[in-house]
Design brief:
Blueprint lengths: L13 H12 L4 H8 L6 H8 L13 E9 L2 E8 L5 H12 L6 E7 L1 E8 L4 H19 L1 H9 L3 E9 L7 E9 L6 H21 L5 H6 L1 E7 L6 E10 L11 H17 L1 H21 L4 H12 L9 E6 L2 E9 L13 H9 L5 H23 L4 H16 L4 H10 L7 H13 L2
Antiparallel strand pairs: 1-2, 3-8, 4-6, 4-7, 5-6, 8-10, 9-10
Helix pairs in contact: 4-13, 5-7, 9-10, 10-11, 10-13, 13-14, 14-15
Keywords: NAD, Oxidoreductase
EC number: 1.1.1.88
Pathway: Metabolic intermediate metabolism; (R)-mevalonate degradation; (S)-3-hydroxy-3-methylglutaryl-CoA from (R)-mevalonate: step 1/1
Length: 443
Amino acid sequence: MNHKPVEGFSKLTKQGKIDWLVNEYLEGNEEYQNILKQYWNENAELQKLHDEFSENTISNFYMPYGIAPNFLIDGKLFALPMAVEESSVVAAASKAAKFWIDKGGFKTTIINNKKLGHTHFIFNVEPHKLLHFFNFSLKKKLMEATEDITANMRKRGGGILDIKLVDKTSEMPNYYQLKASFDTVDSMGANFINSCLEQFGKTLKQEVAISEDFTQEEKNSLQIVMNILSNFTPDCIVRAEVSCKIEDLKDDSGISNEEFAWKFKQAVTIAEIEPFRATTHNKGIMNGVDAVVIATGNDFRATEACAHAYAARNGKYSSLTHCTIDNGIFRFWIDLPISVGVVGGLTNLHPLVKFSLALLGKPSAQELMSILAVSGLAQNFGALRSLVTTGIQKGHMKMHLLNILNQMGATEEEKQYFVTYFKDKTVSHHEVITEFNRLREGK
């Protein structure tokens, strides 16, 4: 297939973009036009709102929006909104919530809420000379230069917390950073942080240019490489935990409470020491976290990047959750680095995001951090509970059954038949196909 590049694609109308795509890549097949348009919202204004969230938009991509009820978090009962396409995620979270509701529920603690950003620059100068300049002149100038940018944030109780000069010359010649920490209150704060950092870069250049501390050759060597926030926020941490007496760990799988607690702890320890297991283990945690992150209009890519960087912070990729058994008490917890907002971005625009935040009682950013950590912990508890008892496939495939049947064009009557058929059996793709064909042939 020899396709031609397109000029001015972004300037085409939405219909123009679709026509070009269908004609250039899809042989003019009208069916593809219909697929795209059937996902448009009938409300033209609402569709226009969605179109303007991103660039070159031609349709909407739907994800299931589900609810996981019965989450007792810090004494309050929540129903969590979850936008996720994977079978069994919402069911597992709901089951874990129900398991812990009569055992005190989930407890959370905000350990810190600092966010970070850096001005990265190259400067061929002695480190001690730059440090003196930073301490006795530059730091104050950086704060003053950003006063207009930070005014509104400071009124809300946030702003720039600190600025440090970081010497990275041992890792890369002449490389330094201005490392700043921020409190962005209820916003995720990306635009605020980046605006401050870009001003840092300008101020650094201006102050070096007029300083008598440096030679002209040194001044000429200064290069501002970039000013950008970091999505790694190891100082923006929330802890969520559950605990109870081992005798209260009643499980319907048939094994004793003691065996369940022991196997569960072994499973967590394996994830702590074995990166191959930790990767899948943490992926399951993020099933729960990301589903609520998406439903509340936050950035799940940033959430993922931060969580996985934190999991590898000690030089080896490890579990985000931990478990202890001491004096007959089972304790399971997560320390999750996460930066989210409840104002700005999609939170004031997307109708379902506004619904999600209303459903959660219009939480502050810190309260949303707690909810997200709980969702991840619950998801992990549900997965490990299955793994150490009945196995993961029994529950997962039962949830996946409808997907298989829909692919095969099953009727509602046939779907009900299969739900009953697999009531006491483990679902397998092969078994579904075999029984489906037998059922159809017998008609």
